[in-house]
Design a protein that fits this description.
fatty acid metabolism; 252 residues; 7 strands; oxidoreductase; binds nicotinamide-adenine-dinucleotide; 7-stranded parallel beta sheet; alpha/beta; Rossmann fold; Enoyl-[acyl-carrier-protein] reductase [NADH]; NAD
Length: 252
């Protein structure tokens, strides 16, 4: 069967387990004909992704908190696979203390760490990525509407997502001449490992579901299909954008 991503090789960063949004993206893109390469954070996370991706050659360690780790990962990808056509950046982290109650609970150290891993890492990955990305290519990151609203408990991560969305626009401006488009998907709330760090995450997800246009939460597959579109040449006119895939929750 022919798909919109036939012949494309795409790097997916951020699969922790089969609930990860990154996994939904990988599955949807594979269905559309893409060849997928994965990075995982560390040995602990490798145990989980090993169960999903049996081909060891496609698994490469990359801790985005370290420039050396990112450089090594991209060098390995280049050696093993040559050029690639896209990168999915589905990575975020903040300490639990940053994700509950008042924003005054934020600390200098926790704030810096959250913005480093959840926002700056997109720039750090793009810096290495441009060396091995084809023309045309596409970069997609994952954001949440806590970037421009003061949602309960989302706190520091909301500020990090605002920075991430801004980084998406600046990258789109500067990589356009190399044929690289950069976009963010603002996904609806769904139950994943990352979300479990947010205080009151069960009610966040319930509340979000009740605010969808049809009362049914968006799925990993729906987010993945949008990612496949953004990776494809069908989206050649879309760059520097934040696309909501949340079944209309952001309308309320
Ligand atoms: P997840 O826990 O499955 O994925 C988060 C990933 O980030 C994990 O694979 C983790 O290993 C990785 N990560 C964290 N620190 C890292 C580091 N230093 N180096 C490399 N990788 C690191 O959760 P998810 O919900 O699928 O999150 C993926 C993205 O989607 C995040 O950016 C998240 O903010 C965003 N998002 C999630 C939701 C939601 O409701 N789940 C909604 C909108 C956006």
């Amino acid at each position: 069967m022919s798909g919109i991503l036939d012949g494309k090789r795409i790097l997916v960063m951020g699969v922790a387990n089969n609930r990860s949004i990154a996994w939904g993206c990988a599955q949807a893109m594979e269905k559309q004909g893409a060849e997928i390469i994965y990075t995982y954070q560390n040995d602990r996370m490798k145990k989980f992704i090993d169960k999903l991706v049996p081909d060891e050659n496609r698994l490469i360690e990359c801790d985005v908190a370290s420039d050396t780790s990112i450089a090594n990962a991209f060098a390995t990808i280049r050696d093993r696979f040559g050029k690639i056509d896209g990168i999915v950046h589905a990575i975020a982290f903040a300490k639990k203390e940053e994700l509950g109650g008042s924003i005054l609970n934020s600390t200098r150290e926790g704030f810096s760490q959250a913005l480093d891993i959840s926002s700056y890492s997109l720039l750090a990955v793009a810096k290495e990525g441009v060396r091995i990305l084809n023309n045309p290519a596409s970069i997609v990151t994952l954001t949440y509407m806590g970037s421009d609203r003061a949602l309960p408990n989302y706190n520091t991560m909301g500020i990090a997502k605002a920075a991430l969305e801004s980084a998406t626009r600046y990258l789109a401006r500067d990589l356009g001449h190399d044929g690289i488009r950069v976009n963010a998907i603002s996904a609806g709330a769904m139950r994943t490992l990352a979300v479990s760090g947010i205080k009151g995450h069960s009610s966040l997800i319930k509340e979000s579901e009740s605010q969808t246009v049809d009362g049914i939460n968006v799925t990993q597959e729906e987010v993945g299909n949008t990612c496949a579109f953004l990776m494809s040449n069908l989206a050649s006119g879309v760059t520097g954008d934040v696309i909501f895939v949340d079944k209309g929750v952001h309308l309320r």
